[in-house]
Amino acid sequence: MTQRPPDDGLALYIHWPFCVSKCPYCDFNSHVRDQVDQAAWRAALLDDLAHEARELPGRRLTSVFFGGGTPSLMPPDTVAALIDAAAGHWAVDPAIEITLEANPSSVESARFGDIARAGVNRVSLGLQALDDKMLQWLGRAHDVREGLAALDTAQMAFSRVSFDLIYARPEQSAEAWEAELGRALGFGTEHLSLYQLTIEPGTQFATRFARGELVPLDPDRAAELFEQTRAMTAAAGLPAYEISNHARAGSESRHNLTYWRYGTYAGIGPGAHGRRNGLATVRRRKPENWLARVAANGHGIEQEDVLVPAHKAQEALLMGLRLAEGVDLDRIATLSGIDAGDLVSRKAIERLERQSLVEMEAARLRVTESGMLLLDAILADIVAA
Predict the structure, then answer these.
(1) Which residue segments constitute the domains of the chain, with CATH numbers given?
(2) Rounded to 5 degrees, what are φ and ψ at 264?
(3) Predicted TM-score (pTM) of this structure
């Protein structure tokens, strides 16, 4: 019988790279193709998965996340085949969370019943806005009516539902966002992902910004909306447990918590990243190149880099301090092999504590509510070089 490692939990990420169209704000690994050879893609994903299973024997599968791209475009039988294969490779946690990202179009929502029967028990719906004009500006294919119909369908099909909204859009007022978020909180979902609009390099929005055609919201106003968001979600019983994610107690994304808590995760499919056995894995990014790599090698890996102690420690700190719970410095020291006293700048922590931006209790370090607004600056200040 295979001996399990002491911390044997494993999260599996499956990347489906195809979309109907490319949204102007999106910098994810997504591609538009006229045709997709579904049989070839199913076989290749199963091969890529089998490779990760050989590298991670004796694990307990705690979550599966189908991301993209638009994984709701996957045939439900492919979703089922991947879930069944994963369950054959590893022991399955009784409380396993299996999430699939979905666009709220009527075509895709019609598949929700089949996707649920395939084994998915949680859906993350990309609503993005509750304003038709803004949805058009964001390049979304659905309107508000269609999006809310898809949300209703999702809530009937899945036991757990989350949806995304993008805020701090150009010229967005506090009053407009209060009304939109208040409406969203009334839909009764257990989890919300609320992201401030950012201009990412290589996107259509970045090109428009460079031309002067897009003027982002003033940073001070964006900060006000951030604070407003956290106050409203907390009052509604969905406090922020991560800088952009809000949930009822017990309804946090178990898969994403594995990332933020620096657990072990395997990533398959084009461009997918993983962290396993002291290695950082990266798959080939372009769909056709990934397919060719799987055909040649039995997996889609492009890079497999050793995670040196300093890199492990830095990653664990940068991810974990996004969480309201913060990080246990003793645990990170054990994971990385670096002495706890060398992980962070103690002088910076003492100064930030006096400013009520961080709290330190025994070995646990967390960013306070007021500090979350300044998270990037705080991270740069306290993470030891």
Answers:
(1) 9-260 (3.20.20.70), 326-382 (no CATH)
(2) -85, 130
(3) 0.94
